[in-house]
Write a structure and sequence with these properties.
The complex is a heterodimer of chains A (about 550) and B (about 230). In chain A, helix 2 (about 15-30) runs antiparallel to helix 5 (about 140-195) and helix 12 runs antiparallel to helix 14 (about 510-520). Chain A is built from 15 helices and 18 strands. With about 550 residues, chain A is α+β, with helices and mostly antiparallel strands. Chain A folds into four domains: about 1-165, Beta-Lactamase (2-Layer Sandwich); about 195-295, 2-Layer Sandwich (Beta-Lactamase), CATH 3.30.450; about 300-385, Orthogonal Bundle (Helix Hairpins), CATH 1.10.287; about 395-550, Heat Shock Protein 90 (2-Layer Sandwich), CATH 3.30.565.10. In chain A, strand 2 and strand 3 (about 55-60) form a beta hairpin. With about 230 residues, chain B is of the alpha/beta class. Chain B has two domains: about 5-150, 3-Layer(aba) Sandwich (Rossmann fold), CATH 3.40.50; about 155-215, Arc Repressor Mutant, subunit A (Orthogonal Bundle), CATH 1.10.10.10. In chain B, about 55% of the residues lie in helices and about 10% in strands. Chain B has a five-stranded parallel beta sheet, sandwiched between helices. In chain B, helix 5 links the parallel strand 4 and strand 5 (about 115). Chain B is elongated, with a radius of gyration of 24 Å. The chains are: A alpha+beta (about 550), B alpha/beta (about 230). The interface of A and B includes residues 336, 339 and 347 of A.
């Protein structure tokens, strides 16, 4: 009964240390040993525990608590390891095959028992028992029970060891997980400090997980369920399309993406965000999730926009100054020689009316007139060179790229004028032949005119529509419409004349320059009032014909 | 030692051709305009810059300055200001290739006779020059008369200056004596001194001198109303 209990106890124990204690306790008690050692380890057995009987009580000391390594007869252990069989010495003090053992010689050991711990044919350890008081303490009957115990102990020890290893592994993992959690927390902390919001979109169940900061940034409640639609819904409607396109491109190319956009917050405010994201894919190359980091860049953006606006104003101012100075210089440079020519001609006329004209003087006058005439031409030539900053260079231009480029340029201006820009480009448009910089200037001018024409309109009305359609005759027609007051009949007839301005602070050079540029491109520019309200300026551009280009 | 006004007048009437001073940095323009003014009957002196003009030796001959508004260095307006400081300021006509309103207003306020745009019609310029010479000689005459009467007035004693004022006010000797608390004999003596020193025959002539004296004229006590 006691043996079965003992075996049950051993078999139930999975804690290695407790198991060792139990096994040694039972072994020492059952065998009636004075002292017992447990060896573990397949290749190099080491003492795992020592059990000592004192005052009828067995005390087990585990390896880690050893003051010094317990002594034992190594030859006996080696024998058991080699033979994998139990060994009993009834009286070690008598002459036997282990008498040469140092331990046995120095210590007058009497009864010795050593048995292997085997599990499925594998030696996992040994138990050594000794009783130095009496000889023949360990008999064969005891040995059978001990071997039974040993086999159960072996299984349990191995299980416990495995369990312990797993547990250790587990605790390592837990440690690693904890470290990860700690680093995540640190990252969160850093992220919060940097105003960063992190989010993960699990595509399979369409769930968006975010850090708390991210919810604050995007204006979500702490416990609000977020799916992709809701998440993207926060983005300003005008910026939504570019973001979705960036995401689509990123999923397609498996590369990260980087976008700047506005958020339309629930409270009606607008915030600028910058998001950097990337996606992960499964073995079938299907996207699994998209992860991103978003940062609020409103302050920086506002500063940038203000800077842009200032630069705009500065550029405008310097342009005005330049034109003003140019006009002054031109007037002076031209009026000097013209004035001289005029006076000289008058003088010559007067002299010629005399009876005997002073021909010498008249010759000098005519020479001066000729030189001043030449000078006038030179002035005009120089001015033209000055005005024409660069050569006209025609190349194939994608009207879509052109319009989008101008739209980008105007982004800040449109924002500050609270004006929307709607771009409507026909699907298949031919490339046009032109100087992109000059065409950009025309478009910029015309759109800016449209924006400024609506400065007195309500916010709802402030929309500029840029429409690009195929023009059957020429190639492409671009129309820019506003919702402003339109042109008066008088203005409409003189719209493209230089120095006519319908704007309070305009120079009136805009449309005249536009006409010059468009005509140089072989196109036409026209303006008309819309049927309901506002006006439309349209211009045509010649399609780029590669064949004609080659033959030309 | 006092210049005689009559002989001064005599000199003005001599057939002296006035000089037109042209100042412009454009050589060709200068030459063309000087030709035009010469065939219009004037003497012309040309200068390439304001500095050159200001450094010219003083001429007693009447004339006017035709100045280019825009010149390197001091421009026409600066030159006008410098000329206004002179004892005998020349009347000024401005020529400009691109004059703006504020500049022309400043020029006219500074006493310019005219402000003409280049190119300028010869007749317009000659009209302006004629006007400038007339205005110039009138100004010159005014300054001369002012100097003449001022110098004479300087010679009066303080008492004689008081008597001068009272005579001009039309007070008889008796009243002047009352106001100044002196005898009528004394007043008569002062009156004859005033007439002599001012070089006039009648109190009416003395009255005309008053308008050239302006603020140099001292004030005199008013007649007491009780003594009438």
């Amino acid at each position: 009964m006691a043996v079965i209990k003992a075996l049950q106890a051993v078999s139930r124990e999975i804690d290695l240390e407790k198991l060792i204690g139990t096994v040694m306790m039972i072994a020492v008690e059952w065998a009636g040993a004075e002292r017992g050692l447990l060896f573990l380890g397949r290749l190099k057995p080491t003492v795992a525990a020592e059990a000592v009987t004192r005052d009828d009580k067995v005390q087990v000391t585990l390896e880690q608590s050893f003051v010094s390594t317990p002594q034992f007869p190594e030859s006996i252990l080696r024998y058991v390891i080699r033979t994998r069989e139990s060994l009993i010495l009834a009286d070690a003090s008598t002459k036997n095959s282990f008498s040469e053992d140092e331990y046995l010689r120095s210590l007058k050991a009497r009864s010795i028992l050593c048995l292997p711990l085997m599990k499925q044919g594998l030696l996992i350890g040994e138990i050594y028992l000794e009783n130095n008081q009496v000889a023949g303490a360990f008999n064969r009957d005891r040995l059978i029970v001990l071997e039974l115990l040993a086999s159960q102990a072996a299984i349990s020890l191995e299980n416990a060891r495995l369990y312990s290893e797993i547990w250790e592994e587990n605790s390592e993992r837990i440690k690693a997980e904890e470290a990860l959690r700690a680093s995540e927390e640190r990252m969160n902390l850093a992220a919060e400090a940097a105003n960063l919001g992190m989010w993960v979109w699990e595509i399979a169940n369409d769930d968006v997980w975010t850090t708390p900061k991210c919810r604050v940034l995007f204006g979500f409640e702490p416990d609000e369920q977020i799916d992709f639609r809701r998440f993207v819904g926060r983005v300003h409607s005008e910026d939504r399309k570019p973001i979705l396109e960036a995401l689509r491109r990123s999923l397609h190319t498996k590369s990260g993406y980087d976008v700047e956009y506005r958020l339309a917050m629930p409270d009606g405010s607008t915030r600028w965000m910058s998001t950097r994201g990337h996606s992960t894919f499964d073995a079938d190359n299907k996207p699994v999730r998209v992860m991103g980091v978003s940062i609020d860049i409103t302050a920086a953006k506002v500063a940038q926009l203000e800077l842009l606006q200032q630069r705009d104003e500065l550029a405008h101012l310097s342009r005005l100054t330049t034109i003003g100075e140019l006009a002054t210089t031109l007037a002076h440079e031209l009026n000097q020689p013209i004035g001289a020519i005029h006076s000289n001609a008058e003088t010559a006329e007067i002299l010629l009316q005399k009876d005997s004209p002073d021909l010498e003087e008249i010759r000098a006058i005519v020479g001066d007139i000729r030189r001043d005439g030449w000078r006038t031409g030179e002035v005009i030539h120089r001015m033209r060179a000055l005005l024409r900053k660069r050569e006209f260079r025609a190349e194939p231009v994608d009207i879509k790229t052109l319009i989008e480029g101008v739209s980008d340029l105007l982004h800040g201006t449109l924002l500050s004028h609270k004006t929307r820009l709607r771009i409507d480009i026909a699907q298949t448009l031919p490339f046009v032949l032109g100087d992109p910089i000059q065409l950009q200037r025309v478009l910029l001018n015309v759109i800016l005119n449209a924006v400024e024409a609506m400065s007195d309109c309500t916010l709802e009305e402030r929309q500029v529509v840029v429409r690009a359609t195929a023009d059957t005759a020429l190639g492409v027609e671009v129309a820019v419409s506003d919702q402003g007051a339109g042109f008066s009949r008088w203005k409409l007839s003189r719209l493209f004349e230089p120095f006519l301005s319908t704007k309070k602070n305009g120079m009136g050079m805009g449309l005249a320059i536009c006409q010059t540029i468009i005509r140089a491109h072989g196109g036409q520019i026209t303006a008309e009032n819309n049927p309901l309200r506002g006006a439309t300026v349209r211009f045509t551009l010649r399609r780029c014909d590669p064949k004609r280009e080659e033959s030309a | 030692m006092i210049p005689d006004i009559a002989s001064d007048h005599g000199r003005l009437r001599q057939p002296v051709v006035p000089i037109i001073y042209l100042v412009d940095d454009d050589e060709s323009f200068l030459r063309a305009l000087s030709r035009r003014l010469r065939v219009g009957g004037y003497q012309v002196e040309c200068f390439n810059s304001a500095e050159e003009f200001l450094a010219r030796p003083r001429s007693e001959v009447s004339g006017c300055a035709v100045l280019d508004l825009q010149m390197p260095g001091p421009g026409g307006l600066e030159l006008q200001e410098a000329l206004a400081q002179a004892d005998e300021p020349l009347p000024v006509i401005f020529l400009t290739a691109h004059g703006d309103v504020p500049t022309s207003v400043r020029a006219m306020k500074g006493g310019a006779v005219d402000f003409l745009r280049k190119p300028v019609r010869g007749e317009d310029l000659l009209d302006a020059v004629r006007l400038a010479l007339i205005r110039g000689s009138a100004e010159r005459e005014k300054r001369r008369k002012k100097r003449h009467w001022g110098a004479r007035y300087e010679r009066l004693s303080p008492r004689e200056r008081e008597v001068f004022v009272l005579i001009v006010r039309g007070l008889p000797n008796k009243q002047i004596a009352d106001v100044l608390s002196v005898s009528q004999r004394t007043v008569k003596a002062h009156r004859s001194q005033v007439m002599h020193k001012m070089g006039v025959q009648s109190s009416a002539e003395l009255g005309r001198a008053v308008e050239w004296l302006g603020d140099v004229l001292v004030d005199a006590p008013s007649p007491k109303p009780s003594t009438g």
